[in-house]
Specification:
The complex is a heterodimer of chains A (434) and B (326).
Chain A lengths: L2 E4 L9 E7 L6 E2 L4 E6 L4 E5 L4 E6 L6 E3 L3 E6 L6 H4 L54 H10 L17 H10 L31 E5 L2 H14 L4 E9 L1 H13 L7 H15 L5 E3 L3 E5 L4 E3 L1 E2 L4 E2 L2 E2 L7 H16 L13 E5 L18 E15 L2 E15 L5 H16 L7
Chain B lengths: L1 E4 H15 L3 E5 L15 H5 L4 E3 L4 H13 L3 E5 L10 H8 L2 H4 L9 E5 L15 H5 L5 E3 L4 H13 L4 E5 L7 E4 L12 E4 L4 E5 L3 H14 L4 E5 L2 E3 L3 H11 L2 E4 L8 H12 L9 E3 L10 H7 L3 H11 L4
Helix pairs in contact in B: 1-7, 3-4, 8-12, 9-10
The chains are: A alpha+beta (434), B alpha/beta (326).
């Protein structure tokens, strides 16, 4: 007997799930209890197991698609069994397969209201419209339920216009036409083959200037819950102490070539940040409200204190520029900022910002995110500190950086990996040539 | 293409099949000299002689049994009942013998015979002569049940029924005999078990058969004037039923109304609704409704008879109801 694979409630608050991966391909043998798919709930990616034996005969949704709980997403059946009745065609009768235990009552078909009371209808009009039961499950036609499932429309939110408030086809079509697509298919961040191999590097594939990625279930939940917790931007902070000794040596070597090649620590930090951003586009992003925009280029904002207050001019395409160009541009922008001569195009469009208070002797601080950017890096002063190394204390140049992260976009581990890359680049600045 | 009556279409089918196969013969009350109570067998006695067009006494059980015996002996009898109401007297031969002979003889005796006659109500023939029996007959494994609604279908299906090696109950209509329609001059046979999409529309499906095909077509015509487009699925054969045709249409329209002449409980429509719920569940936007005769013996009184019968206004009301149009 065929087993319908249904989207199951894999978390207590889950209403729909995104099929991340079919573990069992069509044609694979499946045993009861085998993992058949990975499903992203509002919380996590969970494994879904088979509820019957047979062959995975059909996938009714594709990877990346979202289905409400209870929707049929696949069919497990014997190799020669006719599954067209389940998979969309017409086939001999068969007993319905079991409902998953976790399906909320509201997702199940409405029970008959008048089962015990048969009335003789008038000739030619053979039904009585059932009355709606206040607080009861949403009444809906099977067709309406199917269309709602296909379009990701929440039946509960729809006012039915059929008898007794029954939700019918036209109600779903009305709802679908007046609200944006309820379940956009998210393109999950993927590893890019073109990115240099590095243990700490992942990258989105971004073709063109930027790529908008719809919010995943998880991102939506994170955005909503953390926003409630802390305010418009749910921020968290990551601090890292970076050994700048080799950066110091690099600067000395460059200055030894000639005064024209003098670069500041800040210039090197901006360059390193830009390179790290291209390797971690998850951090190089804007919050767009209902999507996240990931950028391919690193436009690094540089916080400049003026008499009037803070402004953040932007060094565009910093990942493509040499230290000399960055240094020159940074000095010019800072000067023009203080003179209040910046054009709007020069202080907008940043994808990430750096704020450096090291020159004021600040060891460590937290910066406020410059919306809609995903993060900002607060750079403290570089200090000589004793470090226990090979059985003795040695002097090392240490600099503390703190990244403020918008938790709607970035999670702790993502931010940490970015900082790890940044630290690698600054502790071994030759890696910037890699 | 010639336009002829349903009666003449049946007459042509009988004549052609009797010419084609000399094992075919017609037997029943008044079929020979009187040329049939409804003149379906007009001219056949003169053409084929009294060995092949046989008048019987008023003994339905007897001549139905003679027909069964003839079929067992290799002939292909056509048994005419003056109406199916009178076939109740012969039902033991139909249900207990003809339907089961092939099975109970282990395949030794096929039963290539046709039981035919008018079925359902005419006008003011009262309770005992106004009954539709297709759901009774279709209940029985071993029988085939055919109910054509047009001259074209009547001829093509009767020829198929006569050629079939199983007992076929062929349900005509007293009110249909005078209806006219196009019938090709060349020979044709309509396979049993195939429904016909008599009219195409995408808003609702009307599923019907026999005499009610006319009612459904008239209802669909009137609905079309209001912009409501209906599929009209004419089952033509009740058993075996063309489930694919039903499902295909309902999956398209998402709504269905079943119109039949008989009573509600355990009617043909009940079976159609079962197939629809089984194969089209996820496609339904409204409960399937049925239009049928009132649950009472047919009244003799003209006004009450009209009220009891399924008709065009009742069909239109049901279609609007499944479309949620008040």
């Amino acid at each position: 007997m065929a087993t319908k694979v249904m989207m199951e409630a894999l978390s207590p608050t889950m209403e729909e799930g995104r099929l991340v991966k079919w573990v069992k391909n069509v044609g694979d043998a499946v045993k009861n209890g085998d993992t058949i798919a990975e499903v992203e709930t509002d919380k996590a990616i969970m494994e879904m197991v088979a509820r019957g034996d047979g062959i995975m005969r059909a996938h009714l949704i594709e990877e990346g698609q979202t289905s409400p709980i209870g929707a049929i997403i696949g069919v497990i059946a014997a190799a020669d069994e006719d599954i067209s009745a389940i998979a969309g065609g017409h086939a001999p009768a068969e007993a319905p397969s079991e409902q998953p235990k976790d399906v909320p009552a509201s997702e199940l078909p409405a029970p008959p209201v008048e089962a015990h009371e048969h009335k003789h209808p008038p000739v030619g009009t053979a039904t009585h419209a059932p009355e709606a039961v206040p607080g009861g499950p949403v009444r809906s036609s099977p067709l309406a339920r199917r269309i709602a499932a296909e379009r990701g429309v929440n039946l509960q939110a729809i006012q039915g216009t059929g008898p007794g408030g029954r939700v019918i086809k036209r109600d779903i079509e009305q709802a679908a036409s007046t609200t944006p697509a309820a379940a956009p298919v998210a393109a999950a961040p993927r590893l890019s083959a073109s990115v240099p191999p590095s243990a700490t590097t992942t990258a989105l594939q971004i073709e063109g200037e930027f790529k908008d990625v719809a919010l995943t279930q998880m991102r939506k939940t994170i955005a909503r819950r953390l926003g409630e917790s802390i305010g418009p931007i749910p921020t968290f902070f990551l601090t890292s102490e970076i050994d700048m000794t080799n950066v110091g040596k690099l600067r000395e070597q460059m200055m030894a070539v000639g005064d024209a090649f003098k670069v500041s620590v800040n210039d090197i930090v901006i360059k390193a940040v830009a390179i790290a951003l291209t390797r971690h586009p998850e951090v190089n992003a804007h919050w767009m409200g209902d999507s996240i925009r990931y950028f391919s280029a690193a436009h690094v904002g540089m916080a400049v204190a003026t008499d009037d207050g803070l402004i953040v001019p932007v060094i565009r395409d910093a990942h493509l520029k040499g230290l000399g160009a960055i240094g020159k541009e940074a000095r010019e922008l800072a000067k023009r900022a203080r003179e209040r001569k910046l054009q709007p195009s020069e202080f907008t469009g940043g994808t990430f910002s750096v704020s450096n208070l090291g020159m004021f002797g600040i060891d460590q601080f937290t910066a406020i995110i410059n919306p809609p950017e995903a993060a900002i890096l607060a750079v403290g002063a570089t200090e000589t500190k004793p470090v226990w190394e090979n059985g003795e204390f040695v002097p090392r140049q240490k600099m503390r950086v703190t990244m403020s992260c918008d938790h709607r976009i970035i999670d702790g581990a993502v931010g940490a990996k970015f900082l790890q890359t940044l630290r690698q680049l600054l502790e071994a600045p030759m890696m910037m040539l890699y | 293409m010639a336009i002829i009556t349903y009666r003449d279409a049946l007459n042509q089918a009988l004549r052609e099949e009797m010419h084609r196969d000399d094992r075919v013969f017609l037997m029943g009350e008044e079929v020979a000299v009187y040329q049939g109570a409804y003149k379906v067998s007009k001219g056949l006695l003169q053409e084929f002689g009294e060995m092949r067009v046989v008048d019987t006494p008023i003994t339905e059980l007897g001549f139905a049994g003679v027909g069964v015996g003839a079929a067992m002996c290799g002939l292909r009898p056509i048994i005419e009942f003056m109406t199916w109401n009178f076939a109740l007297l012969a039902i033991d031969q139909v249900v207990n013998v003809a339907a089961k002979m092939l099975y109970m003889s282990g395949g030794q005796f096929p039963m290539p015979m046709v039981f035919r006659g008018p079925n359902g109500a005419a006008l003011q023939l009262a309770a005992q002569h106004s009954q539709a029996f297709e759901s009774w007959l279709a209940h029985i494994p071993g029988l085939k049940v055919v109910a054509p609604g047009t001259p074209y279908d009547a001829k093509g299906l009767l020829k198929a029924a006569i050629r079939d090696d199983n007992p076929v109950c062929f349900l005509e209509g007293e009110m249909l005999y005078n209806t006219k329609g196009e019938v090709p001059d060349e020979e044709y046979v309509i396979p049993l078990g195939k429904a016909d999409l008599k009219r195409e529309g995408d808003h609702a499906t009307i599923i019907t058969h026999g005499k009610m095909v006319l009612v459904a077509m008239q209802a669909a015509d009137q609905l079309a004037k209001e912009g409501i487009r209906c599929d009209v699925v004419d089952l033509r054969t009740i058993r075996p039923m063309d489930v694919d045709a039903i499902a295909e249409s309902v999956r398209k329209t998402n709504r269905a109304v079943v119109v039949e002449e008989g009573w509600e409980l355990c009617g043909v429509g009940a079976q159609v609704v079962d197939y629809v719920q089984r194969y089209c569940f996820d496609h339904l936007d409204a409960p399937v409704l049925r239009v049928h005769q009132a649950d009472a013996p047919m009244p003799y009184t003209k006004s009450l008879e009209k009220a009891a019968k399924p008709d065009v206004p009742k069909t239109i009301a049901a279609v609007k109801q499944v479309l949620y149009i008040d």
